[in-house]
Amino acid sequence: MNLALRAFAARVTGQAISTFARFITAPRAIWLGIEPVPRQRIYFANHSSNGDFVLLWTALPGPLRRKTRPVAALDYWLTSPLRAFIGREVFNAVIIDRRPDARTEDPVTQMAAALDMGSSLILFPEGQRNSSNAALLPFKSGLYHLAKARPTVDLVPVWIANLNRVMPKGEVIPVPLICTLTFGAPLHLDPDEPKDTFLIRVSHALLALQPQAQA
Amino acid sequence: MTGPHLLWLLSGAALILVFASIVGEVLRQRLSPNGDNPVIENLNARINAWWVMVIFLALAFVAGKPGVVLLFALCSFAALREFLTLTAHNRADHWSLVACFFLILPLQYWFVGTDWYGMYSIFIPVYAFLLLPVVSALRGSTKDFLVRVSESQWALMICIYCASHVPALLYLQIPGFEGRNVILIAYLIFVVQLSDVLQYVWGKLIGRTKVAPSLSPSKTWEGLIGGTLSATVIGTALYWMTPFSPLEAAGMCLLITVMGFFGGLVMSAIKRDRGIKDWGHLIAGHGGFLDRLDSVIFAAPIFFHVTRWVWSTT
To answer: A185, B88, B295, B314: which one has the fewest Cβ atoms less than 10 Å from its Cβ?
Structure first.
């Protein structure tokens, strides 16, 4: 009974967060060289705001959304009961520990396990929110290790535009502005491709999706 | 709130849409059976969106004054969201932008809804104009300051101030026209949007000479003259549901259709400068709220003030 109630609360909260995100950002998904079809994918995106994964999750069509889990950092999402409820139960996040010396589970193993259960993933390979002036921070190696562990899964770059203007770091009230999410053609790790070459190639593929006509 | 005249106007709009839907479907079967002709697909998307817009407007009319005020407040919200997405602002403007959406917008419509003419006609041009730059200045960033505050003020004037003059028409007091003010709104929107549609139709049929080639390839003199004149003729024929005589109705129709054309022109110039084709994507086939409302936004304040000066006792 209690479990069913929590599951219901999680569904309602998820819907409410999604509706709020739509109200504020009227998100527009642009699919370039890829279609929104139910295939297993790892969506990787630029990370400039805490709302990033909510917006990406909202922009996916319903059937895809239900099979897609964000990858989230334990040191942020498990710091309060409310965040833990939203992270674990509303978004069914794969919660990883960013601190190599403190963690008990390997993040890549956790993500591969989620893929093996049939889920798609949302991943931010920069590893932290980007509040610098650079468009992208250098990618961490997690995406490479995951692509090596599960080489057949599509890696889909997603550029999230404008969300950092909606809610700059440190602000509490969002400004309603239209956000676009540009989904690009899927990528794969080439056999024998070195780590650094791969990470630079995928980050360039992501950068290439930035809308040209930004004010 | 509803009367026989409003029903006439809405039924007329519905009849035009039934006709347009049939034409759209015939054209689709003839020219685009597999949905691969973009012009036909866009035409049908536009017609479907028109149905939705007419239904929303009719529902708001049925709900009375609060319904109409709320509908236009929501349109202002969507329009402002589209406009400010394209303007210059930086982190120092965060609080002034929040104020635009969550303070100035509701207050303006509150003043309209409570019929406080002395306030809503100066609130944005005076109070917001003077106080909003102060909020940005207090945050200390001077980079592009004048550009930032000017673009925000322009957004407020277009998306909130001008648009709010549509529901304001409900509160004019015209002797002999009591209880029928909603007709003024339906009439304004009907004539201006009809003029938009007829400009498009005339332009597609006989359009040759472009009005402003650098601004918009689709605006032609033939479309402009044919569209405004035919909308004026139809608007004049409907004078009996307005407070205007036939001649006055013709003058008013000419005034609002020309203003509507100017609105499209000015808003096109902004889009062209920012390198975009549409303001948004929420109204399928049309683009954004501002793409559809630009003509009404330019026509509404002038229509409101002329009607108020000449016919209203307030």
So the answer is: B314
